[in-house]
Amino acid sequence: MRVFGMQRSGNHAVLSWILGQHDGASLFINNVKLSYALRASRHDARELRAPRRGLAPPLLLLSHEGIDLATQAPQATRYDQRARTPQRVVIVRNPYNLFASRFRLHERRGWQRSYGEGGVPMWVGYAQAALGETQPLPGATFVLYDRWVSEEHYRAQIAEVLGLTFTDAGRDQVADYGGGSSFDRLSFDGSASRMDVLRRWEHFRDEPLLRRLADNPEVRRLSGALFGETVAFSRWADGHDPPVD
User: Fold this and answer.
1) What three-state secondary structure class fits 29?
2) Domain count of the fold of the chain
3) Residue 102: which CATH number?
């Protein structure tokens, strides 16, 4: 199973959850690059054995982060025909919360915030694919992170589509890859459902970079089609909500 997602899309939350729904042995390889043959380092590979071994075939879970779906995903999946049932999962997050998390991460690391803005065209490609406007990965299962976070029945549906046994195990885990959450780091490990991940944009409502994102008509169209808009966000994006001092 290959999982694609942009940095700070909630990739590791979903990956931990997928592993939690699998009954058999599994091998997870993080951050698989396209520039070298697949190999597992001590940091990137983690073998997990579920208590009920043997109830499901072994799972090889590969994480591709920051891969452009249109230009790079076909290269990543060119060997999938060797698998009996290749599965591709694409994670898409609300862009305003996604880029707020990227801004906070880059802030923590001393990078320029504008560095995080460079992924806007890639996000547009992910969103267009999720809406079926493009098909860079035919047959892929799209996971809308915001719904995955807030709706148990949606997680159950995703598990069924992927052929997993829904238990919701791993839902509250915060993986330590990348330092955990951009805002909360590892402080909510074991209680991740308490994190306010759907309102990250509010921390950067006075940030010009986020305003430019809200003023991008294609981003707003795609985001509205996938996730809708809260009243608070709509008022801010439309200029009716004054900045918070």
Assistant:
1) strand
2) 1
3) 3.40.50
Residue 245 within any structural domain of the chain: no
Residue 242 lies in a domain: no
Q: Name 46's bridge partners.
A: 28
Considering the entire predicted model, what is its pTM?
0.82
The list of the chain residues with pLDDT below 50 reads 40-43, 45, 47-53, 109-111, 115, 179-191, 243-245
In a domain, 151, yes or no: yes
**Amino acid in the structure at residue 197:** V
CA nearest 3: which of 212, 134, 145, 119?
145
> Domain span at residue 68?
2-237
Structure tokens at 140: 């892929």
Furthest C-alpha separation in the chain: 58
Kindly provide the residue ranges of all beta strands, DSSP E only, lying in 22-136, ordered along the sequence.
25-29, 45-49, 59-65, 88-92
Give per-residue pLDDT as tens, 84-113: 667 999 999 999 999 988 887 656 544 455
Q: Is the residue at 244 inside a domain?
A: no
